[in-house]
Specification:
Elements: H1 2-29, H2 33-46, H3 50-62, H4 66-79, H5 84-97, H6 109-117, H7 119-142, H8 147-176, E1 180-183, E2 209-215, E3 218-222, E4 228-232, E5 236-238
Antiparallel strand pairs: 1-2, 1-5, 2-3, 3-4
Helix pairs in contact: 1-2, 2-3, 3-4, 4-5, 7-8
Amino acid sequence: MIKILFSSFLLFATFLVNAQFQEGIKAHENKRFTKARSYFQQSLKKQETATVHFNIGLTFFEQQKYIAALNSFENALKINPNFEDAMINSTLTKDKIEADSIWIHPYSWLERFIYSIGSNYWIIAIYTFSLILGIAVFIFLISKKRRKLSILFGILSIFALPTSIIALNKLEKHINVKEFCYAKAGNTELLLSPNGLEQPEKIELGKRYRIIKESQNHFQIKTEENRLFWVSEESVFYY
């Protein structure tokens, strides 16, 4: 009985998410972009997907809020780094912010490979290569004839196992940690410390900054000169 009730609840929750998303689509088609964004954001609170972030980006773009749009498209890429439409729209939006500028994907090809596979597959890989390593050691100890084969599989596992563990750790950090931000305005304050003294340097509007760490509702960011400053969470779009 509990399983049936739980399953019914999941179906009802999914229906609500889809209903809100569909309402957002209708509002967008009727050019009610603020209302559409409200529906998408409600849907986002219940189920975060790349598609919802992408559609939020479309509403911002239609209202010429290009920095917010770019942040939303890249939010979609955080979930699905190979989302082609999000990459295309990021390029178009970057050009709107700064003519003839080149948009660069926030993640390297290796990172995209790691993130697109998903945690379940990396966990399976870890268990699989652990098992292969154990079998290889066992065969090496009991069979002289098959030692060459066991050494081959052992070397493969010794390389693949830590690689899979590192990839899983990187993926988990990627999912749970805020990585990049964009200033909402050109006069965004740069601080020496959270709630500290304001610096004369100004943040570059439309430029993506890497978040180093978070503290007291502030983010520490790194500039192109590798200088570290703090910005308030409220003053930036982030993902």
